[in-house]
Design goal:
Helix content: 25-40%
Bound molecules: 5'-O-[(S)-butoxy(hydroxy)phosphoryl]adenosine
CATH architecture of the largest domain: 3-Layer(aba) Sandwich
Number of helices: 20
Distance between the termini: 25 Å
Shape: globular
Strand content: 15-25%
Structural class: alpha/beta
CATH class of the largest domain: Alpha Beta
CATH superfamily of the largest domain: ANL, N-terminal domain
Radius of gyration: 24 Å
Amino acid sequence: MSEFPIHPVPPHFADAHINAKTYAALYQRSIDDRDGFWADMATEFLSWDQPWHTVVEGDFSKGEARWFGGGKLNVSYNCIDRHLPERAGQTALIWEGDNPADSEHISYSQLHERVCRLANVLRARGVGKGDRVCIYMPMIPEAAYAMLACARIGAIHSVVFGGFSPTAITDRILDADCRTVITADEGRRGGKVVPLKTNVDTALTSCPNVHTCLVVRVTGSTQAWQEGRDIWYHEATTEVARECSPELMDAEDPLFILYTSGSTGKPKGVLHTTGGYLLQAAMTFKYTFDYREGEVFWCTADVGWVTGHTYILYGPLANGAISLMFEGVPTYPDAGRCWEIVDKHQVNTFYTAPTAIRALHAVGDAPVKRSSRDSLRLLGSVGEPINPEAWEWYYRVVGDSRCPIVDTWWQTETGAQMITPLPGATDLKPGAASMPMFGVELALLDEGGAEIEGAGAGYLVIKSSWPSQIRTIYGDHQRMVETYFSHYPGYYFTGDGATRDQDGYYWITGRVDDVLNISGHRMGTAEIESALVLHEDIAEAAVVGYPHDIKGQGIYCFVTPMDGVEPSESLRAELVALCATEIGAIAKPDVIQWAPGLPKTRSGKIMRRILRKIAENEVGNLGDISTLADPSVVDHLVANRVHPE
Ligand code: WT7
C-alpha cells in the first residue's frame, strides 16, 4: 500500500452533491433498503412512460436480474427530448477535431434533429426493435447520433472500436448477426487517416446478411461502392423527416452489445438493457463527478469502449450535461494538446486513463505549464490501476493541487462505476479506487471462497445485483453463467484481485485471470495465441503480460516454431503483422521469445506462472517446477529471456 500522503476533501467541495455524511447514510440505505433506494433514484434520474411494478427480481446466483419490470421508457427520449423544454439551445456535445482548427458545438435541439433523421433512415431501411446494428466509426458526432438513433427505434447497437481489424469486425458482425453497418469513409487520428470503409468492405465479404452500409463522409476520399448496400449518410439523412417518434421500450429490452475479452476463447458480446443501465450511468455520472449544471465534462475514451458509452454519451446526456468528444490523440500535434483543449473549451472535469497520464508525465511538465487549466475542478482516472507516482503528478501538475482525482473501478460487464472516491465525501489515497458506489455490495474471497473480514487481500466479488449488471453474453447465456457466476456460487466474480485496508478502502491489484490490460485495453492471452498459431511456421504460442512503464502491461509471447523452421527477424515481423490483422494494432506483441519448448505439466497444461516470472525477469524464485514433464525447457527459456525496456 502506498506511502503517499492522504489528501483530505478540499474545502471548496464542502457543498458537493454528496458529502461524507450523506455518502454513509445513502450507502447504508442502498444496502438495507435496496428496492426503496433504487426506486427513488429511478424516479429522480429518469422519465418513464409507464411505471415499473417490481424494482428487481431474479436469482443472482444464476446471474439472473430483471430491473424495473413493467416499466417503459426510451433511452434517446431520456437523453434528448426531455431536456428540450429547458435546454434546446444549450450545447449537448462539443466536438474537437484531430486538427486543432476543427471544432463544433451541437445543441440539444440539433442533436434531436440529427438523431431523428438518422433514426428515420434506419427505419426506412427496415431496421426496427431488436435488430442489431454494427457501428464502426471514428470519434465524430455521427458516432453519438448513430448510437442514439438505434436507441430511439429500439435497435441494439454493437460498437466496434475503430482500431479493430477487418477480421475482428467480421467476427463481431456474424456473432450478433448485424445486418446494418454504420461507418465513415475514413477516420482521422493523430494526423493519420484510418481506412474505415475499406476495412468494412473487407469484413463484409464474409457477411452476406448485411443489407445496408451507411457511410459518413469525413475525408471525402474515393471509396469502393456496392450499389444497393452502400449509402451516403449525408444524402440519406436529408431525404427523411426531422421528427421521429421514439419506440416504447421495456426496461429490460436490450440497449447494446459490446464485445470484450475474456481469459478464454473469442471476445464475448456483453449485453446491457435499457432502464437499469441508463439509471446507473446517470446516477454515477452526477455523483462521482459532482456534476453541476452548465459544466463541461470531457472523457477521453473512445466510444468503442464501455467508458465511451457510459461517460461520453449516456451518463452525461441523461443529465442534460455538456460532453466533449475528441477525435484525436493526446500527443498530436504535441503533448500539450489535452491542456490546450481544456483551456479552449473551459473543461471542468477531465476523465482519462493512467496510460495517458504516464505517457504525458514522461515528457515532463512544460507542455502542461503552457496552459492555464483554471477551469478544471475535478480529475478522473479509469481502466487500470494508477500507480501513486502518476497519481501525484496528475494531482500536482495537471490539477495544480486543487482538483480531487476520482479513480473509478468498473468493467464492461458492470456498465457503470462500481468503486470510486466521491470528491466531496472521500479523503483521497493515491492509487486506491477507494469506496463502493451506492448499491454495490463488495466482498473479498480467499482461495477457498470464504469471505475475508476486515483488512486483507483476495478475489474481488460482488454480492448482489445492481441495475446496470450484465444480463447475458449475446448468444451464449451459459458462458455468462460460467464466467461470472460459477467460480464462487452466489457471487459475481470480477476477475480482479484487490486489497482492503484498515479504513475500508479498496485497492485494485489487477486481473487474476488470463486477461491483459494493455494501455487500458482489455485483451485475452488466448486471442493473441490463436492469432500467432495461424502462421504456418508456428507450432505453439503462450502469451503473458509483463509490467510496462507506459502501457501498464506489455505483451510477451513465447513462440515455438515448427520443426525445421529457423526463427528469423522476418518471421518475427510476420507474427507482429498477423496480430494486427487478426485483432488490431493494439494487439501487436512487444516481445517475442523463441521457445523450442514450453513448460508443461505431464498432462500437457502450460504453466503460465513460470512464463510470467520469466517475462517479468523475476527468475530468482520460479517456485516448484518438479511437476513439469521436462524441467530443462525452463533453463533454456530463462537463459534466452528478453529484458524488455
Ligand atoms: C478491467 C475492466 C472500466 C471501464 C474501462 C475498462 C481494470 C478498470 C480500474 C481502476 C484498477 C481498473 C480491471 C477491470 N480496471 N478500472 N480504476 N483501477 N483497475 O473496462 O475493458 O471491461 O476492463 O479494467 O482489471 O477488471 P474493461
